[in-house]
Amino acid sequence: MLKPFKLPDRQNAPATFRLATPKPNFGLGHLAHPGPRIIVIGASTGGPQALSIVLKGLVPAIEQAPVFIVLHIPPEFTEVIVSHIERVTGLPTHAAEQGDEVAKGHVYISPGHIHLGIRRRGADCFIQLSDGPPENFCKPSVDVLFRSAAKAYGEQVIGVVLTGMGSDGLAGSRAIVAAGGMVIAQDAASSTVWGMPRSVVKEGLAHSVLSVDAIGPNICDLFRSFDFCEKDS
Which helix (H) or strand (E) holds 167? Predict the structure, then answer.
């Protein structure tokens, strides 16, 4: 029998904001196994520094799931970020390419000025790039990635909204929560600009609000708890 769904500790949540109450559903339908199967991350101002910290703490989880990252950067910096993340994690890291099959243990970065998404075909998922209009004045947009992940993976998505200006990621976080997935927001104290995460927290979509150095270890704990549950089931 599956053990109860254990969330990370709700640290640093402003008292006036309501955190989401998760309603996990272990009847996964077309998805074969319970527990998280993909991590999607959105970041903007201060994002490269925050990503380095989060990904260092996420390595054990990344080995079990793909990670998709949308970062608001110009195209000429994409390969710089890819090389940096590969050095930080020691894991295969790529600028996302149209039609590539999604593989666990890999980190996929949004190319500059192109939306990054995921589409499911049967049991497999593939990268879908789009040259559509900006959303929230952003291209790539976190919302595009988060919505597509929610559609492809349902309740198996963990969405992470890191430091950044504006509200990109808010609509996508709604989609993840509606699909039964989890959203984690970076706290104000560790954010360079508490805009994107604040919009998610203010609307009550965050299951946890964590400092940047606590996000990776908490997600790893969640993966370990589900691995234990599956062995006990």
Answer: none
Token readout for 3 is: 């053990």
Paired tokens of 201: 């927290």
CB 211 within 8 A of CB 187: yes
The residue from 143, 168, 190, 191 that is catalytic is 168
Kindly state the percentage of the chain with pLDDT values over 70.
82
Strands 38-43 and 67-71 come out as parallel
Answer yes or no: 52 catalytic: no
Q: How far apart are CA 8 and CA 48, in angstroms?
A: 23
β pairing state of 107-109 and 67-71? parallel
Q: What is the CATH number of domain 38-232?
A: 3.40.50.180
Mean pLDDT of the chain: 86
- pLDDT tens digit sequence for 76-120: 999 999 999 999 899 999 999 999 999 999 999 999 899 999 999
- pLDDT tens digit string along 105-162? 999 999 989 999 999 999 999 999 999 999 989 999 999 999 999 999 999 999 999 9
Is 168 marked active-site?
yes
Structure tokens at 95: 């600028």
Is 9 labeled as catalytic in the residue annotation? no
For residue 26, pLDDT beyond 80: no
Annotated catalytic residue: which of 44, 110, 191, 199?
44
> CB burial class (10 A; 0-12, 13-18, 19+) of residue 38?
buried
Domain boundaries, the chain: 38-232
Of 72, 106, 115, 207, which one is the catalytic site residue?
72
